[in-house]
Specification:
The protein is α+β, with helices and mostly antiparallel strands. 36% of the residues lie in helices and 19% in strands. The radius of gyration is 26 Å and the shape is globular.
């Protein structure tokens, strides 16, 4: 019988990154999925990236992952969000051709000749709390050294539309069962979460004349650092709004929503609530924004982003027809809510390996997160660490100051979650260091060391890094007359001028465009102008954050012995003993982020270790 290094369960965004990272590293890997034709399916909105999320996609790419490449190859519009704010807040986002994205992903897996079987994993093979393989619905016993569960919303999934309820992990797809019950027997804490999706509308039934058009960037960027092409043509999105009539229909029919009838008692995503939730929670608002997004280049499907609902089908029609531009709208797919099992992520190590069963990993919505990007980065980290564990190598752990991925995992394993976790820039305390424009500087050398970044890619990165440093050094040693910017003959260093809040890189480039240095390096200066601008303009803030990082790293480097008996440390508070024994933090730094651990508890631990 074939024995695999790793079995990946689930073909969503998390499973894809786990699968492809393992294959690239040279592992013998198997993907088990319910339906091979839905691998890489975008269940909700047809977009990738967004605030905090776009940074994650860039980080995945810098480490050698694939979501950024697939997004670039299938995007139909690109926007850099938050450009009115500082660069730490800039976030790339792209509209995606859903069918094309799925086709590219499936074609890539097929081209790499990776083993995929269509089946359902119903039981794990566990001996002495070590994973040994899986048993499938078709009674296949498949042995492996590790297993990565990326089940998404499929574990005991239930779909709700009005008063109708049926089993399913996604519309028109079955749910799975068995795994939850088995893992509960091993002491795992399980909970239920809820998410939902919006109706999809027939494009030709929409009146676009009076809708606000939303265009992509004039000079669109992309996600991947690889040699993917920039968009030339872009599709438009549209904006409309709900109104009093829409809200009155919802208010009059709260009792017909499963959320308000008590059929769904679990928390949904706070930052992507259903329209019923929005009308109820923000009763003083007379309108809510709805983005009408195309489903693809040649698709007749439009997605109503912001109108997630699980009201009965007749009511969905009724409320949609009150909205400007949708008066004659035809619904192709109705909105629905879905409830599913998840495992509290405090039961995971920083590697995403479970604490209770060795070589069992969990990634994606099974850990209580929401979003394609959050899932994908977990799959990548789980895949990497699965490989490293099998071959007895040191684990790969990203710190909070190194990546948004590090922030996400650290939040999950130390704080847990009672609602679907979504990434935001506000969650990162070192966000000036974690900008979207420097993901390769932070992570590409790590990806190369792991074996996920090629020699050619790292050579190109080093050339880019050297070129940028060369230009920054020129700015630091070159003076120009201020009268080129303002009526002043005083000469000032270029980098000092750029520190002024009213000055940006474009002013500087315009003032030196005729000198020899600028002419020789024009291509590079314009190509990398934003990272040059940010590194110079925010130099002092960057240094300040790095000092704080150094302080925190000293705590991160204080490793807590694995066999420590917290109850024997008499000076610890009772809550401290209980929390530390439960979470079993890896380091003092991690211990500081556990709720309920006091500064005095930390001091006791430091003294004990020293």
């Amino acid at each position: 019988m074939t024995k695999y290094d790793t079995i990946v369960v689930g073909g969503g965004h998390s499973g894809i990154e786990a699968l492809l990272s393992l294959h690239k590293l040279g592992a013998k890997v198997l993907l088990i999925t319910m339906n091979v034709n839905t691998i890489g399916k975008m269940s909700c909105n047809p977009s990738i990236g967004g605030i905090g999320k776009g940074q994650i996609v860039r980080e995945i790419d810098a480490l050698g992952g694939h979501m950024g490449i697939f997004a670039d190859l299938s995007m139909i519009q690109f926007k850099m969000l938050n450009k009115s704010k500082g660069p730490a807040m800039w976030s790339p986002r792209a509209q995606i051709d859903r069918k094309l994205y799925m086709k590219i992903v499936q074609g890539f897996i097929k081209k790499k000749n990776i083993k995929v079987i269509e089946d359902i994993v119903e039981k794990l093979i566990i001996k002495n709390r070590i994973i040994k393989g899986v048993i499938t619905k078709k009674n296949k016993i498949i042995n492996s050294k590790s297993v990565i569960l990326t089940n998404g919303t499929f574990l005991n999934g239930k779909i709700f539309i009005g008063n109708k309820k049926y089993k399913g992990g996604r519309i028109k797809e079955n749910s799975t069962k068995g795994l939850t019950k088995q893992l509960i027997k091993y002491g795992f804490i399980v909970g239920r979460m809820k998410t939902g999706t919006s109706p999809r509308i027939y494009k030709k039934s929409i009146n676009f004349k009076n809708l606000l058009k939303q265009y992509g960037d004039k000079s669109p960027s992309k996600f991947s650092y690889k040699n993917t092409k920039y968009l030339k043509d872009q599709k438009k999105c549209y904006i409309t709004y709900t109104n009093k009539d829409t809200h009155n229909i919802i208010k009059e029919n709260y009792h017909k929503s499963p959320i308000f009838r008590g059929k769904i008692n679990n928390n949904g995503p706070r930052y992507c609530p259903s329209i019923e939730d929005k009308v109820y929670r923000f009763s003083n608002k007379n309108e809510h924004q709805i983005f009408i997004e195309p489903d693809g280049w040649n698709s007749n499907i439009m997605y109503l982003n912001g109108l997630s609902t699980c009201l009965p089908k007749k009511l969905q029609y009724k409320l949609i027809k009150t909205i400007k531009g949708l008066e004659e709208a035809k619904i192709l797919e109705f909105g629905y809510a879905i409830e599913y099992d998840f495992f509290n992520p405090i039961q995971l190590k920083s590697t995403l390996e479970t604490k209770k069963i060795k070589n069992l990993y969990m990634a994606g919505q099974i850990n209580g997160t929401t979003g394609y990007e959050e899932a994908a980065c977990q799959g990548l980290i789980a895949g990497i660490n699965s490989y490293l564990s099998i071959y007895k190598k040191d684990p790969f752990i990203l710190k909070r100051n190194e990546a948004y991925i590090g922030v996400l995992i650290d939040d999950l394993i130390n704080k847990g979650t009672t609602e679907p976790y979504r990434m935001f820039t506000s969650r990162a305390e070192y966000r000036i260091l974690l900008r979207q424009d420097n993901s390769d500087f932070r992570l590409m050398p790590k990806g190369y060391k792991l074996g996920l970044i090629s020699k050619n890619q790292i050579k190109n990165f080093i050339k880019k890094k050297n070129r940028i440093n060369y230009i920054i050094n020129y700015f630091k040693k070159t003076k120009i007359s201020l009268n080129k910017i303002k009526n002043n003959n005083k000469k000032v260093y270029l980098n000092k001028i750029l520190l002024r809040p009213e000055i940006n890189i474009n002013y500087i480039l315009n003032s030196i465009k005729n000198n020899n240095f600028c002419k020789k390096n024009f291509i590079y200066i314009t190509k990398y102008k934003y990272i040059i601008n940010n590194e110079i303009k925010y130099e002092y803030y960057i240094k300040k954050e790095k000092k704080e990082v150094d302080r925190m790293n000293r705590l991160e480097n204080l490793i807590i012995p694995k066999n420590i008996d917290y109850y024997k440390l008499k000076s610890l508070s009772n809550e401290g003993k209980e929390k530390l024994d439960y979470y079993r933090p890896y380091s003092i730094g991690q211990a500081t982020r556990i709720s309920g651990i006091s500064p005095s508890d930390i001091n006791v631990l430091i003294m004990y270790i020293k």
